[in-house]
Amino acid sequence: MVGLVGRLWNLQYKSIVKEALGKTLAVAKFFCVLHITNTYLCTFALAYGPSMVPTFNLTGDMFLAERLSIKFGKVGPGDIVLLRSPESPQKVMVKRLLGLESHSVTYVVDPMKSDRCDTIVVPKGHVWVEGDNIYNSRDSRQLGPVPYGLLEGKVFCKIWPPKEFRSLMKSGMKDPGFVVDAI
Amino acid sequence: MLPTLNLTGDLVLAEHVSHRIGKVGAGDVVLVRSPVDPRRILTKRVVGMEGDTVSFYVDPMYSQTTVVPKGHVWIQGDNTYASSDSRHFGPVPYGLIQGKVFFRVWPPDGFGTLEQ
Fold first, then answer.
1. Which of A54, A127, B18, B47 is the most buried (most CB within 10 A)?
2. Of B37, B93, B94, which is closest to A125 when you measure between CB atoms?
3. Under 8 Å CB-to-CB from A92, ≥6 apart: which residues?
4. Closest Cα in chain B, distance from residue A124 (Å)
5. A95 among known catalytic residues
6. For A108, left (φ over 0), alpha (ψ -120 to 50), or beta?
7. Is A84 helix (H, G, I), strand (E, B) or coil?
8. Contact between B71 and A87 using a beta-carbon 8 Å cutoff
9. What homologous superfamily is domain A43-182 in, according to CATH?
10. Residues of B in contact with A125 (CB under 8 A)
């Protein structure tokens, strides 16, 4: 009688352990898929700061960025991109791409102080990025053309705040007459 | 990268953790995405980190000294006579480092860590 109870207990214990291992494996697989998607397919990020006003708010907008376009070279002028900062490698910035290699870019050097414009040809392997809010943005006008290898993702959709949920595909080229969307 | 790495191709192991936690320093052999061609990855040695003063020979008579700017590293190939590196394209942003080489696997007589 005791032997039978003992054997039943062993059986139950084994099945509990097996079930626990199975569930742990399922969770581990889920995190692996999440990590692969985040690194190679699509990621979301929170942007804060004044440099991309009015496209992104000062206090922080969440958006989705995909990573495949960068790897296949399918970015062009007008796209909003995520890139690693050339002066602080732990920071990731979000700016608008204005010129690829061998493009000739004209930019306002310091709009707070004067209207002086400068033209530069973007060297091979580099890109020119600028924030939409040129009055308060630290970008290629101060840092110089940025190597293409620092690009990390292309922003395609804004998801937070929910009333500003919209696609950010190549519809908004930097336009001096841009009116703030009252969505 | 002679004489550290052979002309005909060595197989090396590189780890992706060190550069994320900031443990890459002068003297390390690193994998770096080329600033000139973003599809190529180069293997070079880090000679100077940000803030270091680096001097290099532009030609056998004339040497130049630069300070590595913030957030950048100075990379040079070990074979300075035939290497396209920071002496040509300038300091490279730290964010372009892809990994640190720590071990050679092939050829078998070079099996082990790389010499400094």
1. A127
2. B37
3. A45, A82, A83, A84, A85, A152
4. 6
5. yes
6. beta
7. strand
8. yes
9. Umud Fragment, subunit A (2.10.109.10)
10. 34-38
What is the number of other CB atoms lying within 10 angstroms of the CB of residue B6? 13
DSSP letter for A161, please.
S
Instruction: List all residues of chain A from 121 to 150 with a beta carbon under 8 Å from chain B.
Output: 124-126, 146-150
Question: From residue A132, how far is each of A65, A165, A176, B74, B109 by CA, in Å?
Answer: 18, 19, 10, 32, 56
- Residues A105-122 have a mean pLDDT of 89
Calculate the average pLDDT of chain B. Answer: 86
Superfamily per CATH, domain B11-104: Umud Fragment, subunit A (2.10.109.10)
- Indicate the SS3 state at residue B42: strand
Query: Hey, what are B59's tokens?
Result: 């030609």
Q: State which residue of chain A sits closest to B70, comparing Cα positions.
A: A87
- Indicate yes or no: CB of A86 within 8 angstroms of CB of B72: yes
Rounded mean pLDDT, B36-40: 90
